[in-house]
Design goal:
Number of helices: 5
Largest sheet: 16 strands, mixed
Strand content: over 45%
Shape: elongated
Order of helices and strands: HEHEEHEEEEEEHEEEEEEEHEEEEE
Helix content: 10-25%
């Protein structure tokens, strides 16, 4: 009986503990704290900075640790996105700056701690330069056809931004879906994006125009014989062996291609070639274009010096 009494007391104690805990959580809603380790920093008044011919180059730290306190229910519902960390850059000057961070938390939430309290911001001059347009066609290409770009308007667009960011921009890329290109020449409006030498978008750049008009047409392709006249292959002391591509792929309208069975190239004189090399072949084209598949048209030359007996 004593053992049963102890077990009964233990059960009663557990029940009372649970009831007390539920009371504290549900009725008293005690104070608690929570830490957010990666709250992003938002720059304020960048436009004022740019009006002074300056631009933010880099942030020493992009996120902040924030510790808050409040009622358990309120803290439980709080999201990191509800916390705002602002850095006012309006009074920054060219070079390195240290700016105090302003942390704003929702009503009924208290800010306990933030780290860091300040952030280093690098500021540089704002510059403007022109960049050309690089057209890329996307999607599945119909066999025996290729797109051709007949014109781009404008050919260049002014870009503006921090000096280091502008320097990263190699070109302005625009992508056109092949489904939009027809067998007749057509004007297509397309968005442009500043990209670096790896084709990755460069952020923080302002464009004078966000779009270009590209005149495109879908041409038929045809492979024909390539004729190249070579001069100076043999001399008294040198013998030159060369290898030429036998064919070339061109593109154009069906009527233009129907009249062409071979393409001649400019005469190549190799009499002054004294070591193994590559020489670019320049086809002479009328009313048609070189296909992308034969963009790098070249011949190889191997030179052998003849020994005298």
């Amino acid at each position: 009986r004593m053992l049963q009494s102890k077990k009964a007391n233990l059960v009663i104690s557990l029940i009372l503990a649970v009831i007390l805990w539920l009371y504290v959580i549900g009725e008293l809603d005690p104070e608690t704290t929570k830490v957010y380790r990666s709250v992003p920093i938002t720059l304020q008044n960048e436009q004022i900075l740019e009006n002074h011919g300056l631009s933010v180059k880099a942030l020493g730290k992009k996120t902040v640790m924030v510790k808050v306190s409040g009622k358990r229910k309120t803290i439980y519902k709080l999201k990191a996105s509800d916390i705002k960390v602002n850095a006012d850059v309006s009074n920054s000057t060219e070079g390195e700056n240290q700016i105090s961070l302003d942390v704003k938390v929702p009503h009924k939430i208290s800010l306990e701690e933030q780290n860091p309290g300040k952030v280093n911001i690098s500021v540089e001059k704002k510059v403007s330069e022109n960049r050309g347009i690089d057209v890329k066609y996307t999607g599945k290409l119909k066999s025996g056809y290729e797109p051709s770009t007949k014109g781009i308007f404008p050919k260049k667009i002014q870009i503006t931004g921090g000096k280091s960011k502008v320097a990263k921009v190699k070109t302005l890329k625009t992508e056109i879906a092949l489904s939009k290109v027809e067998k007749y020449q057509k004007n297509i409006e397309s968005k442009v994006v500043p990209v670096d030498k790896y084709g990755k978008e460069v952020k923080g750049i302002t464009l004078e125009s966000n779009t270009v008009n590209v005149q495109s047409v879908l041409y038929k392709t045809k492979t024909v014989r390539l004729e190249v006249e070579i001069k100076g292959a043999s001399q008294e002391r040198y013998r030159r062996e060369y290898k030429l591509p036998k064919s070339i792929t061109i593109r154009g309208t069906e009527s233009a291609l129907a009249r062409i069975e071979s393409v001649k190239a400019e005469i190549i004189d190799i009499s002054k070639v004294y070591s193994d090399t590559y020489i670019v072949i320049k086809p002479v084209l009328y009313g048609v274009e070189l296909s992308d598949s034969t963009e790098k048209l070249a011949m190889t030359v191997k030179v052998r010096k003849i020994k005298k007996n």
